[in-house]
């Protein structure tokens, strides 16, 4: 009886998701789209912007570049139902000079020579690397730079790497300050506390600069996306989930200057890092209540796949955990989902929680954050959802495909 009822609920859930997807597709394709007048207007924007870009590049660099492609900038209203956002009048112009391709953003509403481009971006990055290396006294592996108001305001086009100031070899600080730079400098096993704050600002301006020191060359190579977003929420968004590989980081400039060391600890092959580096943490192997208590809380049929549960005791606000997948019971299906979970107590009684779980960049660890809050007797382990029939596996594969499709639409519209 229970299995029949569960199967009905699973079937109903799948139907509900497919129904919502159909509604989403109807919203995209039924009667929506740009009017003839809007299409003609965007065509005019592209034509004027192409002419403007050619003149802008010639005036700035003295080169005669060719237009390869144009794309109208669209307003980002940050609403999922805004599938056909209005054009702003600005245009992203893909250009080519000799064998080099680059981008220009410029208005298409009128004749103008005011724009932004990334023609000199590699030259600017190299200059930052040389200046920063001289100031800090150690080797910098990589420079990742963000300019031009990336992800700021309400514009669709990602203006990363675009500047409006000509770099003449002597005005690096001006370039970084005037174009709202956010620069990420990656290095390996360096002490960032010794960096001269004032010297850095004098040479490279007052805009935000993030130094990230990786634990080793291998750790540096394990992280896929090293150009960490300084404009995240909070500032260090994206760093914690990479903290297994990062020794420390330091932010200069802006309003959120900070220096953070990740105090990596290990027990029974499990790695963990307290939010506060001087925090005390004790892990003790204990039993946990039956995994079935998590059914209906992100699982259909949960099974504990880490040999032990661990009683977590600490005076810190949060702990970042990295559980090696090699420690987990082997899985026969790629559709079985693993999550870091914890059982805890508060004034309402026993709680069955799970951390938002991600795979580490190298795919070898499960990452999750445990927030201590007002909980007591916190016990951590890893569960896997093992009830995946062949039919459910097919449905999940379809839903993953739908999710990827929706993500691509979201990505093209909002990012």
Structure description:
The protein is α+β, with helices and mostly antiparallel strands and 415 residues long. The protein folds into 3 domains: 37-115, Nuclear Transport Factor 2, Chain: A (Roll), CATH 3.10.450; 121-261, no CATH class; 265-391, no CATH class. It has 7 helices and 20 strands. It has helices at residues 2-29, 36-61, 121-136, 172-178, 197-204, 217-222, 390-414; strands at residues 66-74, 87-97, 100-107, 115-117, 142-146, 182-188, 208-214, 246-252, 258-261, 265-267, 270-274, 281-286, 302-304, 309-314, 318-324, 338-346, 349-354, 358-359, 365-371, 376-385. Strands 12, 13, 14, 16, 17 and 20 form a 6-stranded antiparallel β-sheet that branches. Strands 5-6-7-8-9 form a 5-stranded mixed β-sheet. The protein has a 5-stranded antiparallel β-sheet with strand order 10-11-15-19-18, with no helix packed on it. Helix 3 packs antiparallel against helix 5 (197-204) and helix 4 (172-178) packs across helix 5. The radius of gyration is 26 Å and the shape is globular. It starts with a helix and ends with a helix.
- Low-confidence segments: 1-9, 150-156, 232-236, 410-415
The main β sheet shows up as: 6 strands, antiparallel
Overall geometry: globular
Count of helices? 7
Overall number of structural domains: 3
Order of helices and strands: HHEEEEHEHEHEHEEEEEEEEEEEEEH
Number of strands: 20
Notable features of this structure?
alpha+beta, disordered C terminus, 7 helices, 5-stranded mixed sheet, Nuclear Transport Factor 2, Chain: A, 415 residues, globular, disordered N terminus, single chain, 3 domains
């Amino acid at each position: 009886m229970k299995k029949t009822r569960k199967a009905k609920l699973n079937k109903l859930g799948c139907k509900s998701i497919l129904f919502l997807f159909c509604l989403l597709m109807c919203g995209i394709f039924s009667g929506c789209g740009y009017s003839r007048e809007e299409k003609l207007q965007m065509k005019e924007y592209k034509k004027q912007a192409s002419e403007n870009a050619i003149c802008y590049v010639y005036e700035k660099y003295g080169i005669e570049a060719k237009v390869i492609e144009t794309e109208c900038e669209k307003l980002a209203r940050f609403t999922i139902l805004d599938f056909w956002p209005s054009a702003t009048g600005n245009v992203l112009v893909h250009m080519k000079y000799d064998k080099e391709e680059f981008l220009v953003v410029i208005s298409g509403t009128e004749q103008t020579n005011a724009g932004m481009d990334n023609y000199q971006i590699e030259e600017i990055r190299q200059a930052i690397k040389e200046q920063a290396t001289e100031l800090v006294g150690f080797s910098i592996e990589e420079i990742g730079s963000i300019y031009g108001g990336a992800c700021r305001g309400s514009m669709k086009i990602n203006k990363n790497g675009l500047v409006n100031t000509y770099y003449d070899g002597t005005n690096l600080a001006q370039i970084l300050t005037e174009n709202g730079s956010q620069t990420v400098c990656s290095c390996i096993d360096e002490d960032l506390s010794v960096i001269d704050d004032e010297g850095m600002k004098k040479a490279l301006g007052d805009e935000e600069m993030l130094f990230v020191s990786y634990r080793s060359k291998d750790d540096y190579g394990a992280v896929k996306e090293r150009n960490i977003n300084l404009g995240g929420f909070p500032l260090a968004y994206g760093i914690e989930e990479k903290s297994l590989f990062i020794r420390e980081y330091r932010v200069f400039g802006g309003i959120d200057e900070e220096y953070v060391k990740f105090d990596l600890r290990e027990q029974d092959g499990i790695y963990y890092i307290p939010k506060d580096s001087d925090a005390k943490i004790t892990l003790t192997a204990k039993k946990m209540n039956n995994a079935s208590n998590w059914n209906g809380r992100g699982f259909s049929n949960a099974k504990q796949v880490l040999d032990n549960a661990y009683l977590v005791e600490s005076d810190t606000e949060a702990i970042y955990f990295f559980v090696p997948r090699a420690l987990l019971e082997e899985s026969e299906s790629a559709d079985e989902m693993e999550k870091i979970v914890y059982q805890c107590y508060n004034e309402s009684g026993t709680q069955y929680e799970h951390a938002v779980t991600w795979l580490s960049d190298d795919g070898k660890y499960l990452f999750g954050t445990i927030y201590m809050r007002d909980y007591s007797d916190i016990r951590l382990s890893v569960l896997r959802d093992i009830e995946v029939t062949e039919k459910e596996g097919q449905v999940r594969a379809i839903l993953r495909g739908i999710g990827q499709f929706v993500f691509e639409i979201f990505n093209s519209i909002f990012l």
